[in-house]
Amino acid sequence: MIQLSRWKIIVLVASLLFGLLFTFPNLLTQEQRDALPGWLPKNTLNLGLDLQGGSYLLLEVDVPEMQRARIDNLVEDTRVTLNEAQVQISGLQRESNGVVISLANAGQIDAGLRALRDTVRAAGPSGQAERTVSRLSGDRIRFAYTDAAMAAMGPTAVDQSIEVVRRRIDSLGTREPSITRQGADRIVVQAPGESDPSQLERVIGQTAQLTFQMVDHENSVQEALAGAVPPDAVLMTDEFGQPLLIKRRVLVSGENLTRASVGSDQSGRPAIDFRFDGQGARRFGDATAQNVGRRFAIILDGRVISAPNIISPITGGSGQITGNFTIASASELVNLLNGGALPAPLNVEERRVVTAELGADAVAAGALSTALGFLVIVAFMILSYGFLFGGVSVVGLILNGLLIIAAMSLTQATLTLPGIAGLILTFAVAVDANVLIYERMRDEARQGRSVIASMDAGFNRAMGTIVDANLTTLVAAMIMFMFGAGPVRGFAWTLTIGVFTSVLTAVLVAQVLLGYWLKVAKPKKLPIAE
Prior knowledge:
- The chain is an alpha+beta fold.
- Helices cover 53% and strands 20% of the residues.
């Protein structure tokens, strides 16, 4: 084990070069890094929110509002379904989880039940039917979500919201955002380095529910303005502020959108090009073919952004949204549409900005604690094992630090304040390996063994203990990484990298340097024997 093998020297030199190459960009300014040749690494340590500042948002998923919207859609679906089945309705009474339908003609009760049951999904995401149809006394029918479906809406909405928020933040270019669930219906968003919290809140908070609905040409806008709004329509204003009656029925929604991109209209102004999936293309094509010459409305979050005339059927599955867009607003809307719609509105419960000054204080405190920890370890090793053996440990410690910074810069893992604690713990663990090896050498020397035999036995017999100790640390770190979140994962990631680099450096550096010393000095006595 103490032999000066060629492969050990190659691995040690390669590790040193790797550490220097990927740590070096951290010492340069942004301008200097930009001027580096393309083949050189330019990534630096990615600092977390607590170290470089950024934005912190605590969001609440408005589950009750989402459930109300689902019931609204259910009521509208009921109206459309029964109208298409030519079942006359005398009244619709909304309930907490559905609607009770009163029929004008009791003889159509079977037709109504059959039409509604045809719309009930055989199996929802949970594997069970989400809606039920039941006959009540007289000429009434209840069409409602099941209790299980209502209960599942909240957790499902939170999970979907986390994914949508993550895609939207990624589109801003924010590195390593932390998006975690808190409690039953809250989401914590930490975006390190995000200098515009208002933009972050605007991008995250917009529901981005896109729908295509027909303009109501059968009923009078003036009568609607006077209060006589038809039950299957809603009064809105177009992009120019003019009142417009819009059919409640949705032709196609953003769920069928496969791609959106910034384009330009015939006048060269910014516009949004979009494409539907197969189902959306068929529905949009059929609707436009049946309504040539009429207007349809493109509605985003309850606001009409465009209401063009249908000149000819749009059957290709693609189209263009025009409006008073700028390049910036069009790009932002494209990112929202491509990121998907939020299943429920998000309410901002807490908004906090971690300033650069606070981040700088944290960096300074972390750097000071790391330096102090390093110096204490160096002093302990020198006092305990002398300048030669203690110095070898210090060299291994320095290389260990270089490798950790290089690995984190390469992988763009986020370094947080708890991550610095993991770094200090890694330094301590690194010298533990040297302590085990050196103490084993001492025991062997005290038993009268030669210098070479003592050193060889030290490495051989301590290796098993070193591997076992680091293996348990590695398992603990992996569990923290898998089940933890935010700073806990940062700590676990730093510790995981440190386990590998500390074993490599503590053992390899000691073997190579002490092997070289043994070869050159040919000592008669082990310096740490006493």
